[in-house]
Structures are given as C-alpha cells and as structure tokens.
Amino acid sequence: MQLAFNNWSDEVGFRDEARNQEFASLVTEKETLQRWRLTDEHLTLSQPLLPMEISSPRWKPINTEWADLLPNFKGVVRSLDKHVWLDELTRMCEQRFSSTYRSDMGVRKFYETKAANRKEHAREIRRLVEAELINDWKNGVRSMHEIGLILAALLAGLEDRLKGVDEKIVRSRESEMNAAEKVAGNNAEYAKIARLGR
C-alpha cells in the first residue's frame, strides 16, 4: 500500500486509498522544469540539453552570448575609420549569425542540425523525468499513484504550453519586424550623420 498510494495514517498505517492532491503546480515550478530541462530556454536550445552540450565551454545562453560578444566587436570597429563603424559592426554580427555561431555552424545550420536530433533531446528529457520519479518511488517519497498523477499533470501542462506556441511565434515575428524597422531607421540616421561629418 505504501508503494501504491503512500498514504500513511497513525491509526491504521498505510491506507489502501490515495490522498487528495494536485500536481499541476509541481510540474510548472521553475525548479522542476529546470531539473527536467523543460524550460523555454532548454527547449529553444538557449540552455544546453544533452550532457555533451552541458560540458561544452562554448555553449552560452543566447542573450549572454551576444552580450559578451558585442563589446568585443565594438572595440574592434572603434579602431577603424568612423565612417565604416556601423558597416563593419553589421558585417561582424552577420558573420557570427550566419557562420560562426555555436561550433562554427551559424544559427540556421545549428538549428537545422538540432532539429534532426529532436529524438535524442526527447530521450534525455524522458530519462531525467523517469529517473527522478522512479527514484522517488524506490525511496518511498512518492507512490505509483502519485507518479501517475504527476505524469498526467506534466502532459496536460505541456499540451497547454504547446497551444501557446503559435501566439509566441506571432509575437516574435512582430518583434523581429519592429527591430528591423529600428535598424533601418538607425542606418538612415547614421548615413545622414556620416555625410555631415565628412
């Protein structure tokens, strides 16, 4: 009864029925998602997912990668003629994006390669979830019934997240268009300033 329900009562010992519990909050907690590598950062491969990726010193979160890289690029372009600063910075960023990002692949090739390895990523996530839940069951922390409830809550939570992906894609595309407009405006402003400077 402990293995099945893990429902202890001081009067009768382990009871032959489940406790009333909910696990939706457990499977959406940041710590749980981090342990199981199910955060948005892991699923977008900003954070590494596979053990080999975790051990790679070149793997940094996307925002950290660019935040570390841009000051170096700016330092390089400032040593050049002022009239070519923006063009050279743009060229360096585009080169990083298209050919030297993560293992000298570029962003597009990196994600194409990783898309082909989706099964390995899914297996790793499944391994982490199974290992934790089976270990909890073996150690008497959770019952088999509770593990079933956790898995059902996890599946429901993942389905809810999946439903929201299309909306996130639309928002990301809008942000991309807004950023492109800002870049075009900055380029036009820079061209005016460069002419005035000359």
List keywords for this structure.
mainly alpha, two-stranded antiparallel ribbon, 2 strands, elongated, 198 residues
Description:
- It is built from nine helices and two strands, in the order E-E-H-H-H-H-H-H-H-H-H.
- Helix content is 68%, strand content 2%.
- It has a two-stranded antiparallel ribbon with strand order 1-2.
- A hairpin with a 3-residue loop joins strand 1 (8-9) and strand 2 (13-14).
- It has helices at 30-35, 40-43, 51-54, 62-77, 85-104, 107-116, 118-138, 144-163, 165-197; strands at 8-9, 13-14.
- The protein has two domains: 8-163, no CATH class; 164-198.
- The radius of gyration is 25 Å and the shape is elongated.
- The longest helix is centred in the last third of the chain and has 33 residues, at 165-197.
- It is mainly alpha-helical.
- The mean pLDDT is 87.
List unreliable stretches of 5+ residues: none
Order of helices and strands: EEHHHHHHHHH
* Count of strand segments: 2
Helical/strand content category:
mainly alpha
Biggest sheet details? 2 strands, antiparallel
Quick overview:
The chain contains 9 helices and 2 strands; from the N terminus they run ββααααααααα. It is an all-alpha fold and 198 residues long. The chain is elongated.
Architecture blueprint of SSEs:
Elements: E1 8-9, E2 13-14, H1 30-35, H2 40-43, H3 51-54, H4 62-77, H5 85-104, H6 107-116, H7 118-138, H8 144-163, H9 165-197
Antiparallel strand pairs: 1-2
